[in-house]
Design a protein that fits this description.
This protein has about 170 residues and is α+β, with helices and mostly antiparallel strands. It has two helices and eight strands; from the N terminus they run ααββββββββ. The protein is elongated and about 95 Å long.
Length: about 170
């Protein structure tokens, strides 16, 4: 007859309990490494210098919009998949058949959209979105030749209509 002390070590629960903690940490480490390798960080930019130079060009386009006194009224409609734009200001010199309309998500670059706003009549334009939008977005409207630009922030769930103005027009 064997006594309790003659059992092999793996028959006791204490060693397994002590090994469970480090084993869970090792598995979690492998999962974390896999996630880090598979999903890149969309907020990190590789070329900071180039991006800084582009910011200066964008500021010049903002100044031209300011000099022209431009502003755009945006209205969301048709199930959050259609946007109407009404361009106001000195648009005679810069009126075009289409405008470049950009929606940029603050944190998810994969949801950014660059679309063409087609002219309906005069200074009225329409954009058809590929999917409904919800939440907060950075909005940019510019002409195809990129001489001027208007930007702003849009909380599409709260504001069905907004006006984009330059700093001088506000």
């Amino acid at each position: 007859m064997q006594s309790k002390q003659d059992k092999p070590w793996y028959r006791y629960s204490a060693p397994w309990l002590l090994m469970a903690g480090p084993a869970i940490v090792v598995v979690a480490g492998f999962i974390t490494a896999w996630l880090a390798i598979k999903h890149d960080d969309a907020l990190v930019v590789d070329d900071y210098y180039k991006q800084g130079k582009e910011i200066n060009q964008d500021l010049a386009r903002d100044q031209i919009a300011k000099d022209l006194g431009l502003q755009v009224d945006l209205m969301l409609g048709a199930g959050n998949q259609e946007i109407r734009l009404f361009l106001n200001g000195n648009t005679k010199l810069h009126q075009t058949a289409e405008l470049t309309f950009k929606l940029m998500h603050p944190t998810l670059a994969g949801q950014d959209m660059a679309l063409k706003a087609k002219q309906i009549s005069g200074t009225n334009y329409q954009v058809n979105l590929p999917k409904p939008i919800h939440g907060k977005w950075h909005v940019s409207i510019e002409e195809p030749l990129q001489r001027w630009r208007l930007t702003g922030m849009w909380q599409s769930d709260q504001d069905k209509a907004i006006t984009l103005k330059t700093a001088a027009n506000q």
